[in-house]
Amino acid sequence: MFRIMNQKSLVTFQRRVISSLSKTADKRYLEFMEKYPDLEQRLNQQQLAAYLGISHEFLSKIRKKLSGK
């Protein structure tokens, strides 16, 4: 049982790393918003930026750019 849980955790981690390396920050932010629509309200900007692997200043620029659409 522990081995299966460990393997699933590793696969999830690998997918996140690959996604982080292959997608733009804009795309990662949009996917986060689709997957966790209510979570953004509960996290501060630094926490969300750290999860996405970007600075909070760059996250502000992404939000500003997307809200202008």
Through-space gap between termini: 48 Å
Q: Share of helix among residues?
A: over 70%
Characterize the main sheet.
none
Quick one: overall form?
A: elongated
N-to-C SSE series? HHHHH
**What Rg, in angstroms, do the CA atoms define?**
14 Å
Structural class: mainly alpha
Q: What percent of residues are in strands?
A: under 5%
Q: What's the total count of β strands?
A: 0
Give average pLDDT, whole number. Answer: 92
Number of helices: 5
Low-confidence stretches: none
Features:
69 residues, mainly alpha
Plain-language structure description:
The protein is mainly alpha-helical and 69 residues long. It has a domain at 24-69. The protein has helices at residues 2-22, 25-35, 39-42, 45-52, 56-67. Helix 4 crosses helix 5. The longest helix is centred in the first third of the chain and has 21 residues, at 2-22. It starts with a helix and ends with a helix.
